[in-house]
Amino acid sequence: MTRTARDSVEVSSASSAPSTTFESIDPRTGEVVGEHPIHDAAEVSARVAAAREAQVAWAELGFSGRKQHLDAWRRLLSKRVDDLAGLICAETGKPLDDARLELILVIDHLHWAAANAEKVLKRRKVPSGVLMANQTATVEYLPFGVVGVIGPWNYPAFTPMGSIAYALAAGNAVVFKPSELTPGVGQWLVDSFAEAVPEHPVFRLVTGFGETGAALCASGVDKVAFTGSTATGKRVMASCAQNLVPVLVECGGKDALIVDADADLAAAADAAVWGAMSNAGQTCIGVERVYVVDAVADRFLELVTERAGKLRPGGEPSAHFGPITMPSQVDVIRGHIDDALRRGARALVGGKHSVRPPFVEPVVLTDVPEDSTAVTEETFGPTIVVQRVRDADEAVARANDSRYGLGGAVFSRARGVELARRLRTGMVSVNSVISFAGVPALPFGGVGDSGFGRIHGPDGLREFARPQSMTRTRYRMPLNPMTFGRSKGTIRRLMRLIRVVRGR
Ligand code: NDP
């Protein structure tokens, strides 16, 4: 018996015989893309055990050995970009060029992780300090062992690879549970690794629904990296808490873009529309809210309206963006539009009629009450809320008035960096949107309901390693307080020393 990803919720409670496989579906056409096993807890544990066995040799390779293998995988990915891009299109519905852009980022991040792991994680000396001057002090970052990666469907290669590439470069094995909507992309990534690095089976797949993800959390993995909704993130944390398994939680956002009075309005409007509508708005760091200073609001709204009004969703290659990948999200998007309009907002582009499943046409809303769900909840659709504010300071205050804190953007000629630093977010772009995701050296992650922990950059490598601090005795200290044989004057002399060097 086969379940499809999209009817899983209904079928799981109604069906008596348990399914063993499920289908992934092209959201543009409803056609079946592929069939995949539903892995139960026993199978998940077996795969984690196999990954754990393989990890030992992977860790022993050291940084340069692993780099050679990860570089081989990167070259294979580069050669086969269009195969994987085609599969991403089929499982998410996004336009081919958007899938290619996702893979361009994957390749660059994989390069960075492999090239920089040694510099960031290798053993290094630190000052041993005044009290332990007889010790050599070092710290190094050692792999956890097996990392469980639970991925989303909106960027089914780029987002999980932000954990997978960095975890592998740090010397871990990875067991990957892709979203039930994009299992084929997960399978492709694992197969391509196996082809490029056949001697080290350290990247494994498990497929299925939420239960498979839950089984991965409980399987004895040494760390879990999760990307998805805040609600599921909390469930993942609760499950990991049972065994004190550390977690990285990358959830959604309600990112704001601030337009100051001196901003380049054409550039700001272009970025706002692209940030909000590309990938049909299904981007955790997508622009969902804009706060524009009153003095330039009319002109900015004109520019946004003109640009957004020209965009067309569809399944054909010329479409600006594709369908809503997860059917249930359509109700969320519709609910946010309805709530805003019912409570007095104005639609400058689109409206209720824009929701035509599986597609949603662009919607630009303004004058939306700040407690409307269109302002407070993640919409994850091609909609944007543009609000007028008195000045940039009010814009910062309103942008920060959110339980989320993932990314953000500021358009301003004079005050860009100053305003950006005041945003309570993990990432921010000045005079662009989303750029930080394309800089592999920059950590990626949020605060508040957007989660915690970091992928990408040096922090993203350290996230998948345990620091091990070490001291090595170089010579015997004349004043040794850590022995029962210490003299009476030892502590007195140390007290005098600490007062002289640290007491002033
Ligand atoms: P979920 O958070 O439910 O799913 C994310 C991943 O977690 C999937 O692989 C999912 O598997 C898995 N999962 C589900 N339940 C569990 C569990 N109990 N234990 C472990 N893993 C589990 O997100 P949805 O796909 O349902 O999307 C819901 C909302 O989340 C969206 O509307 C959007 O607002 C937000 N979202 C944010 C993303 C981001 O990039 N930050 C990405 C995707 C969604 P399965 O798919 O098989 O259920």
Secondary structure elements and pairings:
Elements: E1 2-4, H1 8-14, E2 21-25, E3 32-37, H2 41-60, H3 62-79, H4 81-92, H5 96-121, E4 124-126, E5 135-143, E6 146-150, H6 158-169, E7 173-177, H7 183-196, E8 203-205, H8 210-217, E9 223-227, H9 230-241, E10 247-250, E11 255-259, H10 265-277, E12 287-293, H11 294-309, H12 329-342, E13 346-349, E14 355-356, E15 359-360, E16 363-366, H13 373-376, E17 383-389, H14 392-400, E18 404-405, E19 408-411, H15 416-421, E20 429-430, E21 447-448, E22 451-452, H16 457-462, E23 465-473, H17 489-502
Parallel strand pairs: 1-2, 6-7, 6-9, 7-8, 9-10, 11-12, 11-19, 12-17, 16-17, 19-20
Antiparallel strand pairs: 2-3, 4-5, 5-23, 10-22, 13-16, 14-15, 18-21
Helix pairs in contact: 2-8, 3-5, 3-7, 4-5, 4-7, 5-6, 10-11
The structure holds NADPH dihydro-nicotinamide-adenine-dinucleotide phosphate (NDP).
